[in-house]
Write a structure and sequence with these properties.
With 199 residues, the protein is an alpha+beta fold. The protein has helices at 95-104, 115-122, 131-146; strands at 2-9, 19-33, 36-49, 55-66, 87-91, 152-157, 167-173, 179-185, 191-198.
Length: 199
């Protein structure tokens, strides 16, 4: 499962620039939780402009590997989102959107496009909305409203969202305009993903 991550945008990438990506596993941490045995793996991707060594983006993402879910077990509900977001956008993720996003990011995990697999094998009521798609929605909300480029994003997945349910993306900028708190919610109004951007 995609548990969260950090993005550090160090310099703009220009159209036509050739890029190189170096990926490394920076930590592997076994843990035990309510859902059983867990292994947290953090991967760092460093994207540089080829031939110059200039670092453009550093991305770290945290992935959780866990035991198979027990039949009938429910995902965590999450906590209520702030009631009065300053920024707000709604999206209705359907099967086509999730399938296309899976293709875009080369993600072949069936929980995002095979409904029978989701229900029968994973025990979920619907297709799972990708963690990276929710991250994209957080960044898009900031782009629509802040009017300035994001320097850093720190985000964490809290609970799953499912297809054909309205997703609300909300945000509250800091008083000084240098950062913003962002989140996604489903129909329950509970936070599915939370994030902090710095400008």
């Amino acid at each position: 499962m995609w548990a969260g991550g950090r993005l550090d945008f160090r310099r703009p990438i220009k159209i036509g620039e050739k890029l190189a990506r170096e990926s490394e596993i920076i930590s592997v941490e076994p843990k035990s939780g309510k859902s059983g045995n867990l292994v947290f793996v953090t991967v760092r991707h460093t994207i540089t402009v080829a031939g110059t060594g200039d670092v453009a983006v550093v991305e770290e993402h945290d992935i959780v590997y866990r035991d198979a879910a027990a039949p009938g077990s429910a995902p965590p509900p999450g906590k209520p989102a702030p009631a009065n977001p300053v920024w707000r956008h709604e999206v209705m993720p359907d099967e086509a959107m999730l399938f296309r996003y899976s293709a875009l990011i080369f993600n072949a995990h069936r929980i995002h496009y095979d409904l029978d697999y989701c229900r029968k094998e994973e025990g979920y009521p619907g297709l799972i909305v990708h963690g990276p798609l929710q991250t994209t929605l957080l960044l898009d909300l900031s782009r629509r409203n802040a009017g300035k480029p994001v320097r850093k994003l720190d985000y964490r997945a809290v609970s799953p969202l499912f297809h054909n349910e309205k997703v609300t993306v909300g945000g509250i900028p800091s008083p000084d305009g240098q950062s913003a708190q962002l989140w996604t919610t489903g129909p329950s109004g509970n936070i599915a993903m939370t994030g902090t951007v710095q400008y």
